[in-house]
Amino acid sequence: MVVKKGGICLSAFALIILLILGSVPGQAQTKSNRISIATGGTGGVYYPMGGGMANIISKHVPNTEATAEVTSASVDNCRLIQAGKADLAIIMADTGYDALKGLERFKSSGPVPVRTVAVIYSNYMHFVTLEGTGIKSLTDFKGKRVSTGSPGSGTEVMGVRVLESYGINAEKDLKRDRLGVGESAGALKDRKIDAFGWTGGLPTAAVMDLAATPGIKIRILNCAEHLDRLTQKYGPIYFKLPIPKTTYTQMDAEVQVACVANLLICNEKMDATLVYNILKALFDHKPELVAVHQEAKNLTLATATLGSPLPLHPGAIKYFQEKGIKIK
After folding, report:
1. β-strand 114-130 against 195-200: which pairing, if any?
2. pLDDT tens-place string over residues 132-148
3. What domains does the chain contain, in order, with CATH numbers?
4. Is 296 helix (H, G, I), strand (E, B) or coil?
5. How many CA atoms does the CB half-sphere of 78 hold within 13 Å?
6. Residue 2 φ/ψ, nearest 5 degrees
7. How confident is the model at residue 30 (pLDDT cuts 50, 70, 90)?
8. Three-state secondary structure along 169-233?
C-alpha cells in the first residue's frame, strides 16, 4: 500500500531522495581521510604553500580532504606531528634534525618519529633593517631592539644560531622581541624595533610589503660570513645562497645569506599508500602549486630527496624509486 502525505506518495518521495543522493559526486560521499597540514604564520611562505598542497590533495587524492593550519612553524609543527594533531607539516631541516634526535627544544619531550616526504625548497635567512638605524652588519646588533622570530619557530632557532656565529648572544646582547614575520615587519615600519630576523622563501610577502612602503628603504644584511662556524657546531645542515637584487624593491645588490632546506614531513606511522598518493598528486599537478607561490618551482624530482637529515618515509621511497631516483 502506498501512503499519501501532503499530496506526495511516500514511495515517490523516497525515490526523489535517492535520486538526490545519487546526484552527489562520489568523491564528496567517500572522503573518509581527513588530514591536517601544519604550516606557519600568514605572512610567510609556509601557509600559502600548505594551502596550495591541501587544495591539490583534496582534489586529486582519493577519499582525502586536507586543510592547512596556521601555526608558529617548525618547532611547534614537529610537536603537532608527535602529538598526532597534524598529519603533514612543513618544517626547516635543522629543527627536524633536533626533533628526530631529541635535542635542544625536544630534550624534555624526547625524539619525534618524523620522516621526510619531500624536500620542497630552500629557506633564506633574512636579517632586515632600515636605512637610518645605524645598522650595517650583524655586529651592529648589540644593544639594539631586534625581533628574533616567534616562539616555537624555526626562524628563532636558526636566527639565534646565526647570531651566535657572529658572537652575539640573543638573550644578553639584544633588546629582544619575539614576533612573527608580519608583526616584525609592522614593528620595524613603525620604528618600534631596529631589525628583525626571518627565515623564509623568496619572496616573502611581509618583507615585500615593507620594502614597498613609501618613505622606507630596507637593508638586508649578509649573514653567511661565518657559515663554517655553523657547520662545525651543527653539521652540514646550512649552506649559502644569494638573495637576488630583484627580489625586493630598492635592494642595491644581491646579499649572501645562510640557508636551510624546507621539508614536507609526516609521522613514521603514516600510511605508505597515502604518502605515495600525496606525492603523486603534488608532482602531477605542480602547476597548481606554482600558481599559489613561485617557490613551488623548486619542488623537483631531482632535488626532492636531497638535503634532508631525516629518513625518507617508505611511501616516499616507493614513489621516488618508481620515478628513477636513486635513494642514498
Report:
1. antiparallel
2. 999 999 999 999 999 99
3. 32-121+262-322 (3.40.190.10), 123-260 (3.40.190.10)
4. helix
5. 33
6. -100, 120
7. low
8. CCCCCCEEECCCHHHHHHHHHCCCCCEEEEEECCCCHHHHHHHCCCCCCEEECCCCCCHHHHHHH
Per-residue pLDDT tens digits for 183-198: 999 999 999 999 999 9
Phi/psi at 195 (nearest 5 deg)?
-170, 165
**Which residues, including other chains, have CB under 8 Å from residue 208's CB and lie 6 or more apart?**
248, 249
pTM: 0.78
Distance CA 34, CA 176 (A): 39
Candidates 139, 151, 147; CA nearest to 188 is: 147
CA-based R_g, the chain, Å: 23
Whole-number Å distance between alpha carbons of 69 and 211 = 27
List C-alpha distances in Å: 171 to 141, 146, 148, 187: 12, 11, 10, 20
pLDDT at 27 over 90: no
